[in-house]
Amino acid sequence: MRTSVLLYAGIIGAIFSLAAGYFFADLPLMTAPILLIGVVWVAAEIRGWRWIGSISLFLLIIGSAVGIIVEVDPIWAIMGTVLALAGWELSYFRRFLKKAPWVRNEDQLVRRHHTRVIAVALIGGVTAWLTTQIEVDIGFGVALLLAILSLLGLSRAVIFLRRTD
Amino acid sequence: MNRLLLLGVILYTLVLLGFVLLSGGVLALIIPILVFIGSALLFGPEKPQLTVERELSAESASLERPVKVNLKITNNGSRLEAFHLADAPPEGLELIDGDAEVLTSLVSGESFDIEYTVLGKRGRYRFAPIHVWTSDLFGLLFRETKVDAPGLFEFYIYPKVVPIDRIPIRPRQTKVYAGYIPARIGGSGVEFFNVRTYQAGDSLRHINWRANARHPGTFFTNEFEQERVADVGIILDARQRSNVEFRGETLFEHSVIATAALADSFLNDGNRVAVLRYGDFLDWTVPGYGKLQRERILRSLARAQTGDSLVFDQLEHLPAQLFSPKSQIVLVSPLASGDVEFLKRLRSRGYDLLIISPDPLSFEMQFLEEDEIVKTAFRLAYIERQLLFGQLRQVGIQVFNWQIDIPFDQAITSSLPQLRPVIERNIGILPT
Questions:
Q1: Alpha carbon of B424 to those of B89, B92, B397, B428: distances in Å?
Q2: Which DSSP state fits A107?
Q3: How is B306-362 classified by DSSP, letter by letter?
Q4: Distance (Å) from the C-alpha of residue A150 to the closest C-alpha of chain B?
Q5: What ipTM goes with this model?
Q6: Which alpha helices (H) appear in B114-250, and where do they start and end?
């Protein structure tokens, strides 16, 4: 599948997810700025304005966070975040390929990248959604300890995986 | 903006919002971003362990001949997700076919080839180390390294060598080997040289019967002039002050073409040729014969550039002692004011001098519009130049003023008849 198709699908998907979230949360007015960001982002991708993508990603993720705060269903907000992230990444990848005068084994490279983006989006999205479904009451100290442990664990895991790669 | 920095800003914003508003949902939004960054770290770039071999289709090439460059890249390390390699051809070389850059991914042990073709101007070119950028597939983490490609890393583009007719030189000193230069010694040869008394063993075919008739009782035999090879020293004037540059074109290129053609011609005739480049420094190609010497001279000419030096600003510091006594010296120079006295002295020391002078006037006139001022200036400069030539010819120096709008081979061929009488007159004027 072509990168451009996935890229636009990602951006449009992110916009509609977030807009739908606000719409179903009885905040239809909030869909207008979301749709505007989407239109500007798509236009920027067509015209090749690279910085608009980063700004749009930031605004959409903040939009998702605000949505969660104003009681938008988290599934829409997470979908918006994940798809915006995928769209932003694919936009960069498309530029990266265009810049190179010669791409060797282009099909293979693109396929692997697409697979990885989709996998990361799925894992990230599903994990985020699962965390919103689990409710555990813990104190601040425990939360802090868990956060530190998880950071350390992640770091060790990354080091281990990189060594065995 | 750095992509990783942007994600960091978003992460911090979400964490801040999540803690301030005590919202677990907001904190959950961090997870996809963390997974994204974690994935980039996991498949991030390690220091690439590459072997790169560069091969060129030729160590040297002539001006219009393209050179193929082949790079064989082998990954000796772990897998490289996104791997961007750029082999920048040296400045002055034009990429005419293929790509010198590639974007790919490489598994461990995999190798591939890049091939591109370049074409360039005269010069010596050195390939710089190859630039390699590796990154994760998400482009968050980059690593830039330079990889040296062992093997041939420099090559030469030689000046154009135009074949020319034999230049009639006649140095006073020749070598012992047979060649094409009249040696002023009687013996076997083609041209009549002398009449001497008959000696036992002389060929009867060479007996001069007319002389015998005039002197009865004595036999005379014709002697012919031996033809031998000689030492020829070519001086290429690379002084900035004597060479004209105009709109990116330089008269020096013409001097180089003339030097290459002359060296080739003299070497083809079996002479021992040396080249001295006199500019910001002295570049001396020691005398030698044959194809190897031709290669040495062309290499020297390939890297020849004009330059300024306080020491070598005048020809005064030209080390004439480098050249064999009484040998032939060919000076390729547009000539500058103040050169005449030195050249006269060189001539008086017994060297035979031939000056090939690429004409700076015809060179500049190519670029100027012909109005009255330009025409007057041209006339004045022309007269000055003719006076300079006159002074040189007076002391028996051969001068060839090359109008550079005519190719060197054609110009010199058409001027050979004019050059010859000067030589013959020289023999008459100067003691041998």
A1: 52, 46, 12, 7
A2: H
A3: -B--STTSSGGG--GGGSPTT-EEEEE----TT-HHHHHHHHHTT-EEEEEEE-HHH
A4: 12
A5: 0.86
A6: 209-214
pLDDT tens figures, B124-177: 988 888 888 888 878 888 888 888 887 667 789 999 999 998 888 888 888 888
Question: Taking the alpha carbons of A93, A95, A100, A106 in that order, is the dihedral positive or negative?
Answer: positive
Tracing tokens 């239809």 back to the chain, one arrives at A28
Q: Tokens 């062992």 map to which residue?
A: B150
Chain B residues whose CB is inside 8 A of the A113 CB are 137
Cβ neighbors of B389 (< 8 A, separation 6 or more) are B357, B399, B401
Closest CA to B347 of B301, B398, B298: B398
**Least CB-CB distance to B105: which of A85, A109, A154?**
A109
How far apart are alpha carbons A62 and A122 in whole angstroms? 20
| CA–CA distance, B218 with B226 (Å, rounded to integer) | 25
Whether B104 has its CB under 8 Å from any CB of chain A: the answer is: yes
Tokens for B87, please give them. 């082999």
Nearest Cα residue in chain B from A71: B25
What is A140-165 written as a DSSP string?
HHHHHHHHHHHHHHHHHHHHHHHHH-
* Angle ∠(A78,A84,A89) on CA atoms, nearest 5: 130
Question: In this complex, is the C-beta atom of B16 within 8 Å of any C-beta atom belonging to chain A?
Answer: no
Smallest CA–CA distance, residue B101 to chain A, in Å, is: 6
DSSP B83-98: EEEE-PPPTTEEEEEE
| Other beta carbons less than 10 A from residue B250's beta carbon | 17
Structure-block tokens of residue B241: 């002050």
DSSP state of B60: E
Q: Indicate the pTM of the whole model.
A: 0.72
